[in-house]
Amino acid sequence: MAVRQDTGRSSSQIKAITGADCSPITIRRHLQRKGFKNKKRLQRPRLLQRHKIARLDFAREHQTWDIQKWRGAIMIWGAFSFNGTMELQVVQGRQTAGPSCVFP
After folding, report:
1. pLDDT at res. 97
2. Residue 29 sits in which domain range?
3. How many domains are contained in the chain?
4. 10-48: per-residue pLDDT in tens?
5. 62 or 1: whose pLDDT is higher?
6. Are 33 and 20 in contact (CB under 8 A)?
7. H-helix or E-strand containing 80?
8. 25 in a domain, yes or no?
9. Quick check: is 28 in a domain?
């Protein structure tokens, strides 16, 4: 099995495929010595084809909007941190970028 070509396998899977008589930790240690990095895959929701189509439809529908049409849009603010999430808030009024929000 060519491990470099199949980077999505866990050490337990490699052990099962190769029939190696060692622990998954030994396999990980050996792979680290060979220059492989141990990274977990990011867990995120799958972006389905229907989601991609909906995004594209939205972009096409709104690409010609001018400032006047966007003024009627509602802004909702949400945040998350190490300590958890906050409730969604509807932003009232007009938002402007102050000096602290502008990056050089």
Report:
1. 62
2. 8-33
3. 1
4. 888 888 888 888 888 898 898 889 888 777 777 778 889
5. 62
6. no
7. strand 80-81
8. yes
9. yes
Note whether 11 and 30 are within 8 A (CB).
Answer: no
Between CA 33 and CA 25 the distance in angstroms is: 12
- Does residue 73 form part of some domain? no
Q: Identify whether the C-beta of residue 46 lies closer than 8 Å to the C-beta of residue 62.
A: no
26 within some domain: yes
Give burial (CB, 10 Å; 0-12/13-18/19+) of 3: middle
Strand, coil or helix: 93: coil
Instruction: Render pLDDT for 43-90 as a digit per residue (tens, 0 to 9).
Output: 778 889 999 999 999 999 989 888 788 777 777 777 877 788 878 777
Give the global pTM.
Answer: 0.37
Spatial separation of the C-alpha atoms in residues 104 and 102, rounded to whole Å: 7
